[in-house]
């Protein structure tokens, strides 16, 4: 009883109407760590795009007089075996890694969401076929599937994106299918159907927004693991061209100089991967807490 | 139980057939003549024709597929297109190193993951819990190939306690298995924690407490037993992760295992080896999931397989 009085008082204090977005911001603003985690990749991108303004070197500026140098005022993170500035390469790698992560997960999400919507909405054989295939794909560990796809398609940037996107599809399909199955029964969908809305309108305008919360959470977490998978592929020489300023490829090339004591060649790219993936994982955890009311109670 | 196991084993067959179609199909889906691709760049026309004859590429596609299946089932995996060595021998040699690596990694990471998970769950919401989870999320985000290089730098290059690569003595297992198990330990810690937090809210836990049982008995005997059910499923999935992760880690430590064989085969487009490896990895993975499912029944008496 006292609780409802308090709630009433709280409502009286804040006469503002609660929008879903407003409610999301209110919850999200409590997740301080997640907000910091969201800012770091954004700052990395900003620093990467602004690099020509403050760095006198590009990622492929060779300088054979200054190879394998440690940190200095000129080269903050040192230089590699060709005298290329490691910081400049790391910043270029940030653009590349975030691009691979974002594009591959987006592609996987779009395909998975559409498949999940169709499977959940139509049911029957459409559901059976889509979900059986995605069960088989889902059964495989991501990196194994990615290596399998690279084994078939061969290395290269586009193939890495395809490989990483493929293993995102079944998870999105599964999440959206689950949401669609329950939303399909809801009163507002029934009302829309009674009002004569077409299947397409019901699926994409009425059901899809309802599944977006879990899609966004999963999307964020997946970017982290996709960046990690892409970097692993490049590290094994199965990803982008080995001379590209990609973090995994830099780490792989730098290993040759460990015995020579040039630890910074592998240390900084590894740290960059770790930090970026960590940020997306923390952000994903925070979003889940903010978007999933069930977990919010705990 | 044996019956259930058998039935599940049979259910693997359609999945394996689907995978075999993909694995068989990819050589044929590649642009150009498979024999031309498989023979390599410096093969003569006669070589290509001989290979085409030997591989039966002049037969119909369906017949070729059935020959492929028959060869798989009889372990007649063909010869490496590069070295001419029988693929079966290559895989047999590489199997045990990968097995030991995965086994050691799984063993330590399960124990560590369970302990960290229980530690965090029993201190739910406190600083110690948060510390445990920061460690766990860092473990999940850690590129394991980087961790391997860092460990190698410290223990092999600087302290000179351990070797840097290869598999000659048992001590060579230490660094690769620490590296490979880290992610699994972190995932298990997070998972154990949330499974345990769910269980601890149940009435029977309150009853056990009310009976005056010590916190240790309540957690380890009553709560963990029920929390273990989702955890066992997770172990199956994690073993699969190890299988994939070992491919990467084997590259770091130049481990003479299945992963190294696969990656090198991909470099030189040795399709006989790639096909055999993809089938082997898929089979292993399905088998592990099956075993995890069966273990379920031992842990949870509520589930009885009929």
The CATH class of the domain at 98-303 in chain B is identified as Mainly Alpha
Contiguous low-pLDDT stretches of chain B (5 residues minimum) are none
Give average pLDDT of chain A, whole number.
Answer: 84
Q: How large is the count of helical segments of chain A?
A: 14
Roughly how many Å is the radius of gyration of chain B?
A: 24 Å
The radius of gyration of chain A is 23 Å
The rounded distance between the terminal residues' Cα atoms of chain A is 22 Å
Give the N-terminus to C-terminus distance of chain B in angstroms: 7 Å
Helical coverage of chain B, percent range: over 70%
Structural commentary:
The complex is a heterodimer of chains A (298) and B (306). Chain A has a domain at 101-296: Orthogonal Bundle (MetI-like fold), CATH 1.10.3720.10. Helices cover 73% and strands 0% of the residues of chain A. Chain A has helices spanning 2-13, 20-28, 32-49, 51-54, 86-122, 124-138, 142-153, 157-166, 169-183, 187-194, 199-235, 247-254, 264-291, 293-296. In chain A, α5 packs parallel to α8 (157-166) and α5 runs parallel beside α9. The radius of gyration of chain A is 23 Å and the shape is elongated. The mean pLDDT of chain A is 84. Chain B has 306 residues and is mostly helical. Chain B is 77% helix and 0% strand. Chain B is built from 12 helices and no strands. Chain A binds chain B through residues 136, 139-144, 147-148, 150-152, 154-155, 224, 228, 231-232, 235-238, 248, 251, 255, 258-259, 263, 266-267, 269-271, 273-274, 277-278, 281-282, 285, 298, and chain B through 15, 18-19, 26, 29, 137-138, 140-143, 145-146, 149-150, 152-153, 157, 197, 237, 240-241, 243-245, 247-248, 251, 262-263, 265-267, 269, 274, 278, 281-282, 285-286, 289. Chain A: It comes from Roseibium litorale. Chain A: This is Glutathione transport system permease protein GsiD. Chain A: Pfam families: BPD_transp_1, OppC_N. Chain A: Part of the ABC transporter complex GsiABCD involved in glutathione import. Probably responsible for the translocation of the substrate across the membrane.
């Amino acid at each position: 009883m006292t609780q409802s009085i308090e709630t009433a008082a709280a409502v009286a204090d804040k006469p503002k109407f609660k929008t879903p977005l407003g409610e999301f911001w209110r919850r999200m603003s409590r997740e301080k760590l997640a907000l910091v985690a969201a800012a770091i990749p954004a700052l990395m991108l900003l620093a990467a795009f602004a690099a020509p303004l403050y760095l006198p070197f590009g990622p492929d500026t060779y300088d054979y007089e200054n190879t394998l140098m440690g940190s200095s005022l000129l080269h903050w993170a040192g230089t590699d075996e060709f005298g290329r500035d490691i910081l400049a390469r790391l910043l270029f790698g940030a653009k590349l890694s975030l691009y691979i992560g974002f594009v591959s997960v987006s592609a996987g999400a779009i395909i998975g969401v559409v498949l999940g919507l169709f499977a959940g909405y139509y049911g029957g054989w459409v559901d059976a076929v889509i979900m059986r295939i995605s069960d088989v794909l889902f059964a495989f560990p991501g990196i194994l599937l990615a290596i399998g796809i690279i084994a078939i398609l061969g290395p290269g940037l586009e193939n890495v994106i395809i490989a990483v996107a493929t293993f995102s599809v079944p998870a999105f399909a599964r999440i959206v299918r689950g949401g669609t199955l329950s939303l399909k029964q809801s009163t507002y969908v029934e009302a829309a159907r009674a009002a004569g809305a077409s299947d397409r309108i019901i699926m994409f305008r009425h059901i899809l927004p309802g599944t977006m919360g879990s899609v966004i959470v999963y999307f964020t977490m997946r970017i982290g693991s996709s960046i990690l998978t892409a970097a692993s592929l490049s590290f094994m020489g199965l990803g982008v061209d080995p001379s590209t300023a990609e973090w995994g490829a830099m780490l792989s090339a730098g290993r040759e100089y460990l015995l020579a004591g040039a630890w910074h060649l592998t240390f900084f790219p590894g740290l960059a991967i770790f930090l970026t993936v960590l940020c997306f994982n923390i952000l994903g955890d925070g979003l889940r807490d903010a978007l999933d009311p069930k977990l919010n109670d705990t | 139980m044996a019956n259930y196991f058998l039935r599940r084993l049979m259910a693997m067959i359609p999945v394996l057939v689907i995978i075999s179609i993909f694995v068989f199909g990819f050589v044929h889906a590649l642009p150009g003549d498979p024999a031309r691709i498989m023979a390599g760049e410096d093969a003569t026309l006669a070589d290509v024709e001989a290979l085409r004859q030997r591989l039966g590429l002049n037969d119909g596609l369906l017949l070729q597929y059935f020959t492929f299946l028959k060869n798989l089932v009889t372990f007649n995996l063909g010869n490496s297109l590069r070295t001419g060595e029988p693929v079966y021998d290559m895989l047999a040699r590489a199997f045990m190193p990968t097995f030991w690596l995965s086994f050691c990694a799984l063993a330590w990471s399960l124990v560590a993951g369970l302990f960290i998970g229980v530690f965090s769950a029993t201190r739910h919401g406190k600083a110690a819990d948060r510390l445990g989870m920061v460690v766990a999320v860092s473990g999940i985000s850690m590129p394991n190939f980087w961790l391997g290089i860092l460990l190698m730098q410290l223990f092999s290059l600087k302290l000179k306690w351990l070797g840097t690569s290869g598999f000659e003595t048992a001590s060579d297992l230490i660094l690769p298995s620490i590296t490979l198990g880290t992610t699994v330990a972190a995932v298990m810690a997070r998972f154990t924690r949330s499974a345990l937090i769910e269980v601890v809210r149940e009435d029977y836990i309150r009853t056990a407490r009310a009976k005056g049982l010590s916190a240790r008995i309540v957690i380890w005997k009553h709560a963990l037993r029920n929390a273990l059910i989702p955890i066992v499923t997770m172990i199956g999935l994690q073993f699969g992760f190890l299988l994939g992760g070992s491919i990467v880690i084997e590259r770091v430590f130049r481990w003479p295992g299945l992963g190294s064989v696969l990656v090198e085969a991909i470099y030189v487009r040795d399709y006989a080896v790639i096909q055999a490896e993809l089938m082997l990895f898929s089979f292993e993975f399905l088998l592990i999931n099956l075993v995890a499912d069966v273990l379920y029944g031992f842990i949870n008496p509520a589930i009885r397989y009929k």
